[in-house]
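Hi, does anyone understand the following?
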Amino acid sequence: MNRIVKSLVVTAMVTLPFSAALAQEANVQKLADDVYAINLMGYTSLAVIGDEDVLITETANPFRADVLAGEIAKLTDKPVGKIVLSHEHFDHTGGTEIFKGAEIIAQENVRAVANLDPLGMFPDKIDQTFDANMDIDMGTTLVRLHHFGAADGVANTIVQLPEEKIVAIADMYRDGGLTPGVFLTDTNLLGNRKALNAVASWDIEHAVNAHSTSTDPASLVATAGFLNDLYDEVQPQIIEMLKDPGHLVPGIMELSETLVLPEYKDWKNYGDLPLYVQKMSFAIMHGG
């Protein structure tokens, strides 16, 4: 990373409101033998200690990655040898350079944005990519990577530890409510629905959410249910609108102002439902 850009990023994180998050101590949860969730500065990393090295997710940025390295050192003297990118968004990909010699693993679609990073937060090199699935034998356990298609970004990766019944997911659901609509810029709700339905069908004891300290799978399952209900309301109306294609876009905008899902009215950010209607409608039109 360019040193000037890195300095600006770190300075901004310290001086802007994010400084409150910097003051928080790390929340380290042991989920199973050799498996931890480390919440630090607004992000939660999965850490899996293997026979020879450690696999982690969510380095996020150089400042956080440096502090994360210190937290991992409290758990083991083994080096971080593998970093799995949850997806290509730059606020999640920064800081990998802190872990010298670590292999960076990502879904192959990350290559589409490798040269588009205006912040200097994307790794200089991706060491290994995969298409739909990849297994990593850590010696202590098996880590399985899944890609179900475009969801939050085009290279979204879900990390699964089948034996421990643990998954790690980034930016696809929020505890107790909807993700604020402003954060849906690069989200395909049709893809989110597909991925969350798949994961919700698994036997899960812990769901590590990249922006939460909770590992309760209930919010994941609830969001899958919400997206199913939204799809069931929207999809038939899109089909009806296609009888008069010239009215399609105005029809979607009108639908976004009239559709209600009263069973979710007490969810946080329910007021952003119109944006969800629009995003789901256009995802249905454009594909997932």
